[in-house]
Structure formats: C-alpha cells, structure tokens
C-alpha cells in the first residue's frame, strides 16, 4: 500500500508540474496524466517486487532449513491485494463524500446508476490489482517480458475504459470481462487448474 501511495504522490507532482507548464487542464492532458499514473504504479510494483525478493532471500538465509517461511507467491498476493485495497479506497472516497449531499444524482440528466456502477468499478479494480500482482511477480521471477507487457497493457486499457463513463455499458462490461480473464490467468499462474478445483470440491463433498 505504501508503494502505491508513492506512485500517487509522484503522479500528483507530475500532474501539478504539467498543468503549471502548459497552463491548461483539457481532456488530452488528463488522459496523458492517467497513463503516466498507471506507469508509475507499475514501476512502484516492480520496486516492491525487488525489495520483497531481497526480503525473501534474507528470510531463507536466517531459517534453519534454508527456506523462506513466506513464499514469493504469497508475497505477490498480499502485495497485489494491498495495491487494490488502497487504490479502491482512494477511488471511492470522493464518491462517498458526494453521496452525502447536498446534490442528488440523476436530477439534471445524470445517470441514476452512478453510485452503484462506481462501487462495481471499485470492486473490479481491487480484484484486478490482486491478479496483476500475482502475474507481475511471476513474470519478474521468470524474466518473462511478455507477461509484464500484458499486465501494463491491461492496466492502461482499464484506465482508458473509465474515460467512456457515463456510458457505463461500454466501460463496466469490458472491465469485468477483463477482470474475469485476468483472474483465470492469475489462477493458472499460481499453479491452479480445473482438475484441482474438481478435486477440492470432491473432497468437500466426501466430508459432508
């Protein structure tokens, strides 16, 4: 979460400098700012990976059996979840403040589904960051540039789709499809398989 906050600080400083130098705040500058924020988030995710990798090696050195008590996959999951939670908190907090009034959504032609779609979008972002963390760490560990590129590309795509709002059908639908595909990808990356799911379900059924 701290690394995501660092990326937010860097993106805010970059936005402030850009506005001061250009003297404008149009849509094109906003889109460039969003892209820069995504790249800074992924850069901080990489920095988080490098530090946790060092921590993992240090824990392995201190342990009696030469193994770290926490696997890199567990660190990837926790890191991604932390990115998602803090990102979701910052994306929804202003919306929650607006929901307290004094305005009422929908009176002047605004969508009455603004709050519910914002909640679903925040949920998708939390899940996506969790999945991206698992995939990103695995790609860094295997030195797989394609996986890193797909994570960064899907992050940029998700950010770009939000600019279609308030046309929620065009933004929320593709984002949830992307979330599902990324979740399946992360599941496979973490070693999961359909056979293991069936085996897990059958074990639970036998206990009942």
From TrEMBL:
Its main location: membrane. Keywords: Membrane, Notch signaling pathway, Signal, Transmembrane, Transmembrane helix. Residues 1-19 form the signal peptide. Belongs to the APH-1 family. The chain crosses the membrane at residues 29-48, 75-93, 113-136, 148-168, 174-194. InterPro entries: Aph-1 (IPR009294). Potential subunit of the gamma-secretase complex, an endoprotease complex that catalyzes the intramembrane cleavage of integral proteins such as Notch receptors. The gene is Aph1a_0. Component of the gamma-secretase complex. GO terms for cellular component: gamma-secretase complex. This is Gamma-secretase subunit APH-1. GO terms for biological process: Notch signaling pathway; protein processing. It is a multi-pass membrane protein. The lineage of its organism: Eukaryota, Metazoa, Chordata, Craniata, Vertebrata.
